Structure formats: C-alpha cells, structure tokens
C-alpha cells in the first residue's frame, strides 16, 4: 500500500527555511506502517538545492534514543560547510540502550528511502536502506540529476523541481522514520546572519544579548519537539481508549448472553423436574 502525506513538503520546506533563519528547526518524525510506503512531495526552486538526512527507529525504541538521534541530526546540518557532518558516538547510556535493542532486531532494517522526480521521466534520484539507530545523508538533491541543478529557460518543466520523498517499510513491524531537510539558500542566509551578529570586539551587553537569543531558540526548539511528541501520545491514547470501549461493550454482550443461557437452562431443568 502507498500512503501520500496530506502535508506537502513545499510547506514543510518553507517552515524549515524560516526555522533555519530564526531558529534551528527539528527533524520531522513520522510513523511508518509495516509493508507500506509513506511519501511526501517536495518542491525545490529552480535556483536552489537541498541536503536530506534519513533515519529509522524500531517502534519500541527508547525515547532517550529518539531524542538523542533527532538532536544530533539537527546539529549535523548546522555547520559552516555545505555538507552534512557525521553523527558523533552516542553517550554511554544511549549506546547501552542501542546495544540491548539490537539483540532483538534482524541484521538489516528493511527500511528504505527513495527520492524520485514527481513528473517527467520520474527518475529515481536515490534509493538506499536506512540502518536502525543511525542516519543516512543525501547531499545535493538537484545536483544528483545532471550536476548543474534545475533546468531553466526553454527546458524548464513545471514538475522538474518536484520530488516524491518516500519511506518504504518492508520490516515486519511499524517503525518511526526521521527526516531532515536543509536548503542551501537557508544555510547561506544563516551563515550570513551569523557573521553579521558575530563581529569582533562585541560589547559585553551585545554578547549577553546574543547568548539570550541562543537560549531562547533552544527553549523554542524543545517546546516544538515536545508538542509533536504530545500529539503523538494523544493519538495513541485515543486509539487505546477506543479499543477499551469496544472491549467493554463486547464484555457486556457476553455477560448478557451467558446470563440468558443460564436462565434458559434452569427453566428447562426445572420443567423436566416438574418444579415449574
């Protein structure tokens, strides 16, 4: 089965663009049903390019591991170069949790990502497996086509800059996919603003103001991430509540049925004994 997300990545990229300018946006976390493909549509401007990071976690992965992986993926796009830095080794407690989880997992995750042109030739730009508990980067989405970015002028096509970004879960259980995208124009804008704000010989008051901004951005990032987690937990809670109500109604029906059978049996029994 194939699932197309209602929220297009055009809106998501715009939000990420603003997030790169005003704060550091967190990666997108999505539920990936077993044996299904979940896709997003991503529109890239003609004169821009993008980097992407993909990761996958088992459904029952510890929340500490998810927080660590999401945070490190966000940091991986926040560097002075236009590439994607590698994730650092996890802390000892996180590594212990990962090692314990890997004992119950197969050697391969069977979770893939695919980047494909939405129109025209529908060429597959990238298709690779995502190991559990790490990230897979893909740099220069547009450069992966012909090395020169998007087509322009007479060769321009409305669908040339539109991509389907898909998670393919062939694993036997549901998993959580993590997806981060960063526009090159957003990186350049962030670096330009960073240089403007970090001139030499800052006055003490300006340094304190800069630190306050960074703390405020960190708090906002954490609030956004916690809000997303809260929505996910609320959906799971609603699903559980519905199942409990259905089970309660079923139990009542069973009790009523058993009671009716007992009454019917007793009536027949007493009639045979000529008590009634």
Give the low-confidence spans. Answer: 3-23, 147-155
**What order do the strands of the largest sheet run in, or round the barrel if closed?**
1-3-8-5-6
Q: Write the element-wise H/E pattern from the N-terminal end onward.
A: EHEEEHHEEEHEEHH
The CATH first-level class of the largest domain comes to: Mainly Beta
Structural class: alpha+beta
Report on the architecture of this protein:
With 276 residues, this protein is α+β, with helices and mostly antiparallel strands. The chain has 2 domains: 197 residues, GOLD domain (Jelly Rolls, Sandwich); 73 residues. The protein is built from 6 helices and 9 strands; from the N terminus they run βαβββααβββαββαα. Strand 5 and strand 6 form a beta hairpin. The radius of gyration is 26 Å and the shape is elongated. The N terminus is likely disordered.
What is the strand and helix layout of this fold?
Layout: E1 2-4, H1 9-22, E2 28-32, E3 36-43, E4 50-58, H2 63-76, H3 92-102, E5 111-117, E6 124-129, E7 135-138, H4 143-146, E8 162-169, E9 175-183, H5 184-197, H6 204-272
Parallel strand pairs: 1-3
Antiparallel strand pairs: 2-9, 3-8, 4-7, 4-9, 5-6, 5-8
Helix pairs in contact: 1-5
